[in-house]
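Figure S4 source data
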Amino acid sequence: MVAIADEPLAALRAALRGSLLLPDHAGYDVARTLWNSMIDRRPAAIVRAAGAADVIQAVNFAREHRLLMAVKGGGHNIAGKAACDGGLMIDLAAMKSVRVDAADRLARVEPGALLSDFDRETQAFGLSTPIGINSTTGIAGLTLGGGFGWQSRKHGLTIDNLNAVDVVLASGELVQANATHNADLFWAVRGGGGNFGVVTSFEYRLHPLGAEVVAGLIVYPLAQAKQVFDGYRKFTAAASDEMTVWMVLRKAPPLPFLPPDVHGKEVAVIAFCWMGEPGRGEEIVTPLRRLGEPAGEHIGRMPFAGWQTAFDPLLQPGARNYWKSHDFKALNADVERILCDAIVRLPSDECEALICQLGGQINRVDVGATAYPHRDAEFVINVHTRWRDADGDRKCIDWARALFDALAPHATGGVYVNFMPEDEMQRVAAGAYGPNYARLAALKAKFDPANLFSQNQNIRPEA
């Protein structure tokens, strides 16, 4: 633990509109706790920021005292980079405002907001924009890494719908960035993670989204995996941008629409969201219901904000988590075989392999238009291990790594930066950013030459 003298701490505390937490203060342990319980770090001090001025004070304090600094939005990142040992943690959780301008279809959002906050506010006006699929995720980290979810095939990544940001730089200066003002910084934060500053406000373009979407789950026994995979490949290849279909391979949780004898058995789950005219939903999803003989299904019209919470019970905080991820241009028979072989050897009941469908509008954007470069990926496979006790660490992590290695020959070599665990920093250059890395490294040298913002999937500053 870094020792910080009382006098500078007192001056920092007096300068804040928010609060300063030290290890012996009430609320310290709550503030430092992250979604992934494998990460247990103890900052020397935590600034609970109430606004941009507090962020400026915290950044200046960390720079002047040469402290390691971490920034926490929702704290959901798998690598746990939102906390640091012995340094200064900036906790943005109190900055949760979401302000919708319905006339101009814009939303100004603070970095502590969760996806649930965003959904509730925007949907009240029949508007939305592409974000992730778990309502407890923080919008800041999701956006800075790229961001994709059910609306992305129709409207692109989260960053493709970002209009402007306010950013506190390593110098402590607060600047605005958009397509015409500080355009190089705006380019970098659209996929470059937290490497370039602390974003204190995001402005998103919004799109009309009706009161209901057609969405749901169709659960097939793993024994039917071959025909389900074949049908899934054909369906996704022909799907319009208004339809997104993901597949989850795991043991069936005790969902109320499943017979009890299916609970705990290996299954292939089709999860879909139809963003088009709800009246056409039943017709559109019929082929997905006929990929095999379902063990159960839950399909219907529902509010989009409600569908966004569907996976929350499976992703609650407090568990140990480890991810490995690949991008794919296509899913071939070998990928199917490798996945199915692995699923019958799951190391815990909560582990899964998640196939995310991309494509559509995401891939109509030029590779160099944003820092996020993976505009040729049609699917992401995220190997998600999840368990409760440290005794399971080795077994679960080894299973994820083995599946990742087996899939590698069929993947692009690219990786979505928000899905990278802490031990994959060697993939940042070639895997996460590829052709855009050199430009990112040069911009890092411009905006953060001392690498103050190092607690992230780090881009090293280079001339």
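Figure S5 source data
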Amino acid sequence: MITTAPTGLYIDGSWRPAADSGTLTVEDPATGQVIAEVADATVDDGRAAAAAAAAALPAWRERAPRERAEILRRAYELMIAAKDEIAALITAENGKTSGDAQSEVGYAAEFFRWYGEEAVRVEGHLGQAPSGDKRIIEISQPVGVALLLTPWNLPAAMITRKVAPALAAGCTVVVKPSHQTPLTALFLARLLSEAGVPDGVVNVIPTARDVAVVADLIDAGPVRALSFTGSTRVGSALLGQAAPRVLKTSMELGGNAPFIVFPDADLEAAVAGALVAKMRHNAEACTAANRFYVHASLYDAFVGRLAERLSALKVGPGTDPSSHVGPMASASARDSLTKAVRSAVDSGGRVVLGGDPQAGPGYYFPPTLIDNVPADAPVLDHELFGPVAPVVSFESEDDVISMANSTEMGLGSYLYTQDLRRGLRVAEQLEAGMVGLNTGVFSDPAAPFGGVKRSGIGREGGRHGIHEFLETKYIATQW
């Protein structure tokens, strides 16, 4: 059993069991074995967390920005100091390799540092009306209590990317982490308390009864903002629930990222970028390259080289330092990949590498490469969320732009070319919120993260992220 993280609900600065003493189990995806029992929040627990956040709001929003900033900076330092412990928790409940987990902790911690710096840079505006009859004063104020819903795939980073700007803005929060990965969230709650976050400002309520708990928090009570990271299906439903109360919402939803290799691309750089864009965080990331479009002149060379690189990756438990690919986070995630491969083959694709789940305990699926995939194959229409790479050949720039944009999703895109004019021209035409031009990684705490179309609303990270938790007030006056 995991013992380094608390297992109770964190409400108003104290650890407590669920109101009905219910618990949920946390599994190790590498073995399928239970590693912890965690309190399973009820509707009443959700209400208690929201009430605590509301009670803590007045003092926190009036706290000097510099004081809030120093607390966030301290949280960054504590998180870096506990990097190994947090990474071990991530590997235990999520399954990703220790290297990926370490990388996530570093990335996650940066949001505390970045928004510690942004907390003191919330600006207003003073101007004169064109008519000359009044002054126009604009100020930003915290929206209030924020409900933060986070997924299992980056159990640390998806929390800090929301909590940090919310606290910097002066909001208080109720965090509902995924019931698959609650241990990391609870550890971070304890860390924030140690950093000096007052009781009630951050509340964490893991629950397997999330539909009822979240619906109740949205329908009534003090919640004024909703931030969600997860599937488009769930995000769309949450927007419908939030509409009657007109909550301020931000949604980071599904992706279907194309990875385009033009004929003048540096082949080795493109293959290296593809490996990172596809396999980072066990390929279970909304930013993962999902569809590979390679120009016919480089197609065979790219497929051969990528197959060589993927075949060298060792599949094994994340706790093994020699592992490159850990287990999928759940049995359902593994099984969905099996269906996706069958669909690609039924469409005419050819499995070059992998293709079948690994036998034995744990939810393992090996790196899989499928070539000769038709441009209209159903496998290209949805997010795979795993180490399966379908490859499509293309002939012209116009054709590949059309193929890349032929989806309702628009989170991230990647393209490789040595022609800067082509790169920027295509980047502008791709219907995505983020583009990696000759790089397999574009996520950065200092940059705006988010999508277009059905991939989301709003932005996280960068200078934009704090504004998801602020409202603009206009004051008219004369002197």
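Residues 87 and 103 are 8 Å apart (CA to CA). The chain has a mean pLDDT of 97.
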